[in-house]
Each structure stands twice: as C-alpha cells, then as structure tokens.
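To whoever picks this up:

The nightly regression suite flagged LysR substrate binding domain as changed. Nothing in the input moved, so I suspect the structure step. Input below, exactly as stored in the fixture:
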Amino acid sequence: MLYPHARRMIGDMSALACRFRKKQDKIQLNIGIEQDIAAAHLGNLMGRISLVLPEVLVTLDPGCTGDIRLGCENLLCEDELFIPMFDESYVLAFPQNHPIGQVPKLTLEQLHEQPWVMSPEHESHQRFLPLYGASGGIPRANAGNFTLALDLVAAGYGLTIAPASLVEAHCELSSRPLPGHPLMRRVGICYAIQAQLNPTIELLLANLDH
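Regenerated output under the current build:
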C-alpha cells in the first residue's frame, strides 16, 4: 500500500526539483536605474524587455550599476555608448492654482521675481541660471535631485524647473513651458562596449536601437 504513495512522493519531488532548476537556470539581466527617471519611462522599457526577452530574470537596482542602465545621456561614462529612447523638455513646475499659471505669456523678468527650489549640485543647474536671474543667489530651498525638488514645490516652498515626465507624476502640481529656447534632456540606455559580448544583451540592444 505504501509503494504507490512513495512513488507519487518521489515523482512530486522530482517535478519540484526540475522547476527549481529551471528557475535557477534563467538568464539574468541586471539593470541600473539612475535618479530622476520617470515611472512612465521605466515602464516603457520593461514592457519592451518583456516582449524581447520573456524568460529573462530581470533585477533592477538604483544608481550606476548593472549590465545596462536607464539614465540621461549627459551622465555617460567615458567608455560607454548610448541608445536614446526619450527626448523630453524641462518645464516650470508650480502648485496648482498658483498665480503664475494664469499669466498669458511668461517672461524671464517674471521668473526672476519667483522663489526658487534649486538643485545646485545637479549637472543641469548651470543651464537654469539665466532663468533664475538675481533670485538664483537666494533660493527658497535646495534639493539633491528633481524628485526631491518637486516634493518641496508640492509643500509650498516655491517653483522649480524639472523634466516634464516627473512633473506629470505629481497630480498636485501644474507645469508650463519655459520662456525662450526649449531646454531638453535625453533619456535612454547606457552600456559599456563589452556588454555587447553577451548574446542576451546584444539582442536586447539591437531591438531597443530600432
């Protein structure tokens, strides 16, 4: 009576071990995610990876790490290549119902009078100085990245300049184009040349490059 039961137990254990081995044998892909990348951009990338590499075990980690990483073009290291995925503009971010949202045509002079939340350590800071004017020397608050700057704006600390995709994620904030020539940033895949030696990564990069 015990023999059939024992055989079933052995069969179940073998099937479980087989499933475990398959899970362990999955090809792994580690992706670094830089700061200030919108959830919409990350979701777009992950959707494309799922279609191209449905069986790959993906691991996301913050910062400059991984087999490839999702980040801004201006953060490339010297030996890295870049595949552009998203071009987006910087916009003026402010709380909903702020008077500046009702101004018909925004001018630099009007911006110079505003209380600013700045990110002085960010690589984009120098590009924004003409928009700050004299107010650039007396910020209302400082933040280490755009995400934190937008949190401060939502808390009523002033206005800030940030990528449109990040502002759109804050339902309590509004935005409008900046005066003058549009300021842009490009988000995409950063990767080292030797990463292409991995057939899985080579296939993914070829797909993302189209």
